[in-house]
């Protein structure tokens, strides 16, 4: 009996905290198990980040054919770079946020290292160049609607769809990773965490350039590629740094690395972090870590059947620095959940 008052006191203390919560408003997929798995994935992100944001998700579970496990199509907002940078500064809460903001380009424009445009030379516009003419693509960004909510650029609880996520019912999924992933089954919750990650802003505008570039289409004027994302400010290469660019926006097969300080320090030295594009790069969408290196949940390919997918500190850092803010006591919750998602990541199934 003596312990009861203490327990009650703790309960009051927790309830008394002003805690905004990241939450997800997810429509039914029409499949009860998929709905349950999707809710677990949403709870994962809600356990790590505490923004007063509701992400509205239109969910689906249907036969997509092919090798795609799941796909996310997110609404994106076009935002003046000035407003984006100011919002990033106002939203900064972690040490990494401070580093990120301190290294964002000052002024109202940024310079990009780009190719595959009508201004580029070489076969199919292969030669990158420094685009610093202050055009539309140097003065605006395009980030997911959920990311804009996290940054306070729009109301965090604004209604309407933020993203549409569909899972491929043609695969045999294990919808509950708590007891491991069954033999021959794909980790549904891991795939759902990945797709929600895209909705939350882990994207690259390089995919738009890559898709709309020679020889399949284009070339188009560089000012049309107003698709630099929040994550793209972490995308660099040795060549983009040498050219004096603020980010690498090229569609080609050169290495691109992740850095939160404008390219001075790579997130993990020597690691080649980003996928390079389906058409002109390495065959994977640029909106991912590099394939098969085990960098994290945003790897373009999921763990093989029978294995869980891993969320890493690198994943969490990326979401932190694009505008998501940690819960008041991040360490116990994130470590516990990361532990739950455990072990190694090997490749085989593609997801987008
Ligand atoms: Zn993906």
For this entry, give a set of tags.
disordered N terminus; four-stranded mixed beta sheet; single chain; alpha/beta; binds zinc ion; 15% strand
Structural notes for this entry:
The structure is a single chain. By secondary structure, the chain is α/β, with parallel strands linked by helices. The protein has one domain (19-350). It has eleven helices and 15 strands. The strands form six sheets. The protein has a four-stranded mixed sheet. The protein has a three-stranded mixed sheet with strand order 6-5-12. A two-stranded antiparallel sheet has the order 4-7. The longest helix has 17 residues, at 32-48. The protein is globular, with a radius of gyration of 20 Å. 47% of the residues are buried.
Q: What molecules are bound to this protein? A: zinc ion
Question: Percent of residues in beta strands?
Answer: 15-25%
Q: What is the H-and-E element order?
A: HEHEEEHHEEHEHEEEHHEHEEEHHE
- Mean pLDDT, to the nearest integer, reads 89
TL;DR of this structure?
By secondary structure, this protein is an alpha/beta fold.
